[in-house]
Write a structure and sequence with these properties.
five-stranded parallel beta sheet, alpha/beta, 9 strands, four-stranded mixed beta sheet, homodimer, 8 helices, 206 residues, globular
Chain lengths: 206, 206
């Protein structure tokens, strides 16, 4: 995938909780050459999580120092915890022509979409993944948690607020089976590699 | 393919003479639901050509009357002959959710790209198909004709002038084998059906 004619793709996938965005990104990287970008966070590691696989777990001081040093592509705070994507996860790979996939919330996705860096803009695309129906969304949110009704209602309201932002994304995937979603996601990546705006020239005509 | 949520795609393929654009469009329609849009022309029918398959062969008076009546999506003159795409070939199909594929020269493609009609804009995408190298382009142009050297040079110059316009197209396909080209073209069509800008809403959330 190393090519001076195409940078790698920087593909952001967003979707409400339970949409399967992380699974989709990781599945698309499996057995291929694309890289799944691991976010950094200051939240505590949970049982079963692995540093460097699930997140880069950083101390608050380390995170803020890296923000100060301009090491983040995007970063944001959610409920007092910091989350962000380190440039080192992304930029060297794009420059080598490698694709980088990541799941981000709508806030992070908007920051990357507005990024001024030319290499990021040329590489960028984004996909919104959404459960096929409102009933399915409800079922997935309920399936993950055993919450009080008012907590469930709050969770659903938050998900619907995120879903309302699908038109900001270049692609919208109403999810189907995991295999169908992966097929369609791969078609998007294959097509995006052929976009003229990413092409730096016609090598055979130089 | 009938869907009120997505209009059909209107996919224009351009490329120099010998690029295989007609073959690619027709192959993508075979056995599927997409429609290959047949152009209208005032040029004389050639041996082996079939009216309605290769072109809609019209008299000059008929063609110009239809231009006057606003029946063309695009039309242009090349060496005194008129060529154009009848709206009736395209618009009713898009409205039903059917994909329409057509090959056009760079002039026709530019006219469709600038088309003001909202249904056309929402359905539109375009692909430039180009032989992989300059040597291959030369070979294909020579293979088709047994012309004098100066005619060949003129043909090559015209092809290079067309090829210089690849950045106007959303996608650029450097052609490979016929099968690989068709695969990549199908990925483009599959991806384009998922573009948010074509989507009129989220049906499961209405």
């Amino acid at each position: 995938m190393i090519s001076p004619i195409h940078p790698g793709l920087l593909c952001i996938v967003s979707g409400p909780s339970g949409s399967g965005k992380t699974t989709l990104c990781r599945a698309a990287c499996e057995g291929g050459t694309a890289h799944y970008s691991v976010s950094a966070t200051t939240r505590a590691m949970r049982p079963g999580e692995v540093d460097g696989r699930d997140y880069h777990f950083l101390s608050e001081a380390d995170f803020l120092g890296r923000v100060e040093a301009g090491e983040f592509l995007e970063h944001a705070s959610v409920f007092g915890r910091h989350y962000g994507t380190l440039k080192s996860e992304v930029l060297p790979r794009l420059a080598r022509g490698q694709d980088v996939l990541m799941d981000l919330d709508v806030q992070g996705a908007a920051l990357v979409r507005q990024h001024a860096d030319e290499a990021v803009r040329r590489a960028h695309l984004d996909v919104f993944l959404v459960p096929p129906t409102l009933d399915e969304l409800r079922a997935r949110l309920a399936g993950r948690h055993t919450d009080a009704p008012e907590t469930q209602a709050r969770r659903l309201a938050a998900a619907l607020e995120e879903i309302a932002r699908w038109p900001e994304y270049e692609y919208t995937l109403l999810s189907d089976t995991r295999e169908a979603d992966l097929d369609r996601f791969r078609s998007i990546l294959a097509a995006e590699r052929l976009r003229s705006r990413r092409r730096l020239g016609l090598p055979g005509y130089a």
